[in-house]
Amino acid sequence: MGRGDQIYVMREWMALQGVYEHHGIDCGDGTVIHYRKPSETIERTSMETFTRGGKIYICHHEVCYIAETVVMRAESRLGERKYNLLYNNCEHFATWCKTGTSYSTQITNFIPIIKHLNPDALSDPIENAILDAKPKDSSILLNEALAEIKVAWNDIQPQYNQAVRDLNEWQRVAELALRKNREDLAREALYKKLNYKQKAIELKSHLDKLAQMTETLLKDAKVL
Predict the structure, then answer these.
(1) Which of 50, 85, 95, 219 has the fewest CB atoms within 10 Å, counting from its CB?
(2) CATH ID of 6-110, from 3.60.20.10, 3.90.1720.10, 3.90.220.20, 3.40.190.10
(3) What pTM was estimated for this model as a whole?
């Protein structure tokens, strides 16, 4: 770890440990430039403030700027307040400093939290965190929660739509096989249809839970 390195630590989201990576640029003098929360401003802070006691990891790139250029690019954006979870987060910033491209692996290849946790189990800590927060912070938490749900929804919905298309296609194949007196092919097609139908049911269940979480959060927000 040294000057110009893109470093990150695991941070919690709401009450869930190790959910996302918080990125920054190591200035080599005990300070880090990063999109700091809760100010959502690009600041130079101490390494201790950045890590919050967490383990430091280094993000490696095959092609990147030299250390002096990386730090200079980071310094050029000090004071910026244009944070956006999906389009301009801490990883977007740090990767831009390092490579010249604003990019976030966490968002592009994001595996929704609900693939690791039951949505029912996820909704309680989200709602509790918002309801227990100070009024000033509750709207920020709400927006972050809704943004995370949107990312998950955008990942699952295309999979659901594809599963529905596949099951309909195998139904068509089965009907065609029966018309040609190929019961063997029809049985195989119906078997594949059932597999896609089960997948569609499971994905639809996830979407329904996400929709319910969104509705609940918005209702709770009205009483904050």
Answers:
(1) 219
(2) 3.90.1720.10
(3) 0.51
